[in-house]
User: Fold this.
Amino acid sequence: MKRLITLMLMVLSIGYLNAQTIRNSNQSVLATISPNGDVRNSNNSLVARISSNGDIRDSNNRLLAKIDGNTVRNPNNSVLGYINNDGTVRNNNQSVLGRVSSDGTIRNSNNSVIGYAKGVPMKYAAVYFFFNIF
Assistant:
């Protein structure tokens, strides 16, 4: 039993250590996203969880949004926007909101850097910065 608990703690700590950081344009930490989809704010409080099926739920398990392929939807299944494979993020009217570069740099529609999400899956970074879900 002691070995099982130790193993579980090791697995949990590895997941936390591998969490990727989301930063603003001044490099200040805004949040972390762990490999299991936990989204934590700068105080390390759980604010949401992104599941493998694309559901984004708050800490009380309420559905906040859903990533459905390249489409982001609200809890009522209405389209909020789109995340193209090249990192371009568009709203529901197809207007460009910004872009997530392959190096994790986040730029708004004016091409100004608004943040960084190195190592964070592109869709997660796009949802964090452009759809005001968290």
Summary: The chain has a mean pLDDT of 88.
